[in-house]
Write a sequence for this structure.
């Protein structure tokens, strides 16, 4: 069993990052961090609510990246659910032991220097799941 600790964030694909930030600020979120993640072809913004819940807004900065393709196919909306784990590598091994085929064979660096790996929606009931571990 993968020992999830908490929902770390919900990832939301957007076309216009500035507009999306303003929208979430209207919902009570505050901008906490923003960065370009070059190897994923996105600029991301993390916004948090007072209670500690976060969203990650993802806007494409390249036309052929995964998030650009997602937007073309599905439009704006929920992209992934991120679950905090103590050890992404161990969680990937657990996933494989269940017969799942994770998108990522190995953990990689995500926004904020976190270690991340994605589980495929075909194994998780239609939801792209990001496993993440604090840096
Ligand atoms: Co994420």
């Amino acid at each position: 069993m993968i020992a999830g600790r908490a929902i770390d964030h919900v990832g939301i694909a957007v076309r216009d990052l500035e507009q999306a930030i303003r929208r979430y600020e209207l919902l009570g979120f505050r901008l906490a961090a923003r960065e370009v993640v070059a190897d994923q072809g996105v600029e991301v913004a993390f916004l948090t609510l007072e209670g500690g819940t976060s969203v990650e807004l993802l806007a494409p900065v390249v036309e052929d990246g995964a998030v650009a393709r997602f937007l073309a196919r599905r439009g704006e909306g929920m992209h992934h659910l991120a679950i905090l784990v103590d050890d992404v590598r161990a969680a990937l091994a657990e996933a494989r032991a269940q017969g799942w085929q994770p998108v990522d064979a190995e953990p990689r660096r995500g926004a904020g220097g976190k270690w991340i790996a994605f589980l495929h929606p075909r194994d998780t009931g239609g939801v792209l799941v990001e496993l993440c571990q604090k840096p």
Observations:
- The longest helix spans residues 17-26.
- The mean pLDDT is 96.
